[in-house]
UniProtKB/TrEMBL annotation:
Keyword Signal set for record: yes
InterPro entries: BCAA_transport, Leu-bd, Peripla_BP_I
Domain of life: Bacteria
Annotated source species: Desulfosarcina alkanivorans
PANTHER family for the chain: ABC TRANSPORTER SUBSTRATE-BINDING PROTEIN (PTHR30483:SF37), LEUCINE-SPECIFIC-BINDING PROTEIN (PTHR30483)
Composition bias, Gly residues: 258-267
Full protein name: Leucine-binding protein domain-containing protein
Length: 298
């Protein structure tokens, strides 16, 4: 699994190798990689530790072609303006040759534009907003698939085993949620599956009582299947509430893990939905995508 993930990182960042080799002549004693990092998230300490562990292992192995790797962190606060300032600080003040990170879809697009203006490669490692790589920004790359690709992991299962004639779609009203919901809407149209309801909800106000109100129209519409796009905590509440509907429709949760990766297997009533993807430990993943694009430096 570790090497499979590292291969993805190599493919996703091969294009910036030319840029990095071009700046090698002016590189200082250390190669600085900037990390945009949201410090108020529960995963923040874990992810920062993973980056530092990767740096230590790379440097113990001789660095990047003999030059030590140095990391510089900047808090993007999950907000567009703060994210832009974080990228600018890493490039202009810390002299980062590339930027890595981008957890929240809510501000990563703005950070991508900032990095592109500064002509600095930005490797997005978790944000799933489809638009990040749809704007032809030459310096922007992504390690993970966009939100529209996540949904594809369920499509074969839905066609071969569930075979719904109708569906309701519940999603968080965010770039990540909208991307997944839009893809499922297209899938339903392509396969003559009637969409009985489209129900967005606001993540910040997600409580069991609120989500029960969101699901009430689903009870009335009586679809064959319910497709949900949400982060892991909300997904757990939604599945529990959907099961309380005490109906026989298939309940398909499409969670995204709080650690920035996809959640575990979705849960259905009567059918087990296989995981759309499994992310290895943060350390092995980060070590791979920090080392891969920099190994080409002369």
């Amino acid at each position: 699994m570790r090497w499979a993930f590292m291969k993805i990182s190599v493919a996703g960042t091969a294009a910036i190798s030319i840029f990095l080799s071009g700046i090698a002549a002016t590189a200082t004693a250390s190669i600085v990689v900037g990390i945009v990092h949201r410090e108020d998230f529960a995963y923040a300490k874990m992810m920062k530790n993973a980056f530092e562990m990767a740096r230590e292992e790379i440097n113990r192995s001789g660095g990047i072609n003999g030059q030590p790797l140095q990391l510089a962190f900047s808090d993007d606060k999950g907000e567009p303006t703060a994210g832009e300032k974080a990228v600018e600080a890493l490039v202009r003040e810390e002299k980062a040759v590339m930027v890595v990170g981008g957890y929240s879809s809510s501000n990563t697009l703005q950070m991508a534009y900032a990095a592109n203006r500064l002509d600095t490669p930005f490797l997005v490692c978790t944000a799933a907003d489809d638009r990040i790589t749809q704007h032809d920004l030459k310096n922007i790359y992504r390690l993970n698939p966009p939100a529209c690709e996540y949904t594809k992991g369920l499509e074969e299962l839905l066609l071969d085993r569930v075979r719904p004639k109708s569906m309701s779609i519940v999603y968080e009203n965010s770039p990540y949620g909208i991307g997944g919901a839009r893809r499922m809407m297209g899938f339903c149209r392509e396969n003559d599956i009637k969409i009985k309801g489209i129900h967005p909800y606001f993540k910040k106000g997600a409580t069991p009582a609120y989500l029960e109100k969101v699901l009430n129209p689903v009870r009335q519409n009586q679809p064959d299947a319910i497709f949900m796009v949400s982060y892991l905590k909300d997904a757990a509440m939604l599945v529990c509430k959907a099961k309380e509907l005490k109906r026989s429709e298939q309940v398909s949760a499409h969670p995204r893990g709080q650690d920035g990766g996809m959640g575990g297997p979705g849960t259905t009533t009567g059918v087990e939905v296989p995981s759309c993807g499994v992310v290895p430990s943060p350390f092995s993943a980060i070590r791979g995508f920090l080392a891969a694009p920099l190994d080409v430096l002369p």
